[in-house]
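Cont'd.
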Amino acid sequence: MKPTALFATLLLAAAAVLSPIAAQAEKSARQHVVIQVSDNDPAKWNLALNNARNVQTDLGKDKVDVEIVAYGPGLNMLKADSKVAPRLAQALDSSVGLMACENTMRNTKTTKADMYNGISYVAAGVTHIMKREGEGWAYIRP
Amino acid sequence: MKPTALFATLLLAAAAVLSPIAAQAEKSARQHVVIQVSDNDPAKWNLALNNARNVQTDLGKDKVDVEIVAYGPGLNMLKADSKVAPRLAQALDSSVGLMACENTMRNTKTTKADMYNGISYVAAGVTHIMKREGEGWAYIRP
Amino acid sequence: MKPTALFATLLLAAAAVLSPIAAQAEKSARQHVVIQVSDNDPAKWNLALNNARNVQTDLGKDKVDVEIVAYGPGLNMLKADSKVAPRLAQALDSSVGLMACENTMRNTKTTKADMYNGISYVAAGVTHIMKREGEGWAYIRP
């Protein structure tokens, strides 16, 4: 191998090492937060919705991903007859993800017909939150 | 140094840089979660135990490490006379780590004789949780 | 380019790749924790203050950064007439950061004159916590 070819190989190797680091930095410019709701308490539901709205206001709606994950006793937040139902429409309009835990639904004999229209579903709330944390999302438990 | 030797050195250097990254990726294939219990509330204790069981069911018992750390007012969860004592046996059988905070025990004059048999102990609950978060474990506070 | 020059380039490239990794390792030797208070509950405030003190005792005051961020219904913890006011002085003396959320203050018509003297302020509690998590701080929600 000629020195020139060696130098090219060196540059390629350096690029291979550095590019994922650069990609990571670029990716982390966008912010992400997962907000957990596991209490059967409308005051907490309002606090979670306030947190989501404030984060969007502070960082810019298009600069941050916000998900509210409701599981266990918190599932009631996302039901059709939820005490915060009017605010759920606003959250969906603002692209806040509202995710209900299907594990909790199965255990409490709750069907999608009982849930607020337009929300999303995850197989398991806790596992979804773990996944988000692993992806570098911030975790907030109001 | 001959070009061939140079090339070998280059490969070794690249390997030295890349292997910890690969090891990290392999390590992170296994998942980990630390669940905090700091409320004196049997409903929360049951929720924490449900969370642990669901995570094991969803991800596979042998694919995920699960620890429940009880401190402060949550210490009662892991006492011998705990309202969830029958479920503690099941959790231990399923390799869920049950860790009591020795700081809280000292401050509340609680001894190991007061605690459920077979659980583990950490010098300080919060410091242990911080350590786990630093190691990349997900954090869940039910 | 001569082989010797190539080898030097190789070493420089390796150093460029490895030094941020080494810096990261050194940085992470110092520990950091952000403790969230979002409940209007003096028992939780005392628990948060206990957690802060215990972390400093366990890790050494000069080895760990500790911040308590109060927002939403938790803002009352940091008011001048707070039930834990005597402990706030101790926390400040021990270099525990006490940060009040200005978003919450505005929404509840609370001014700095209502707050405990000597505390710090952040524009938004949740956004500040997200920032800390993104910087690698551990998150504790007592």
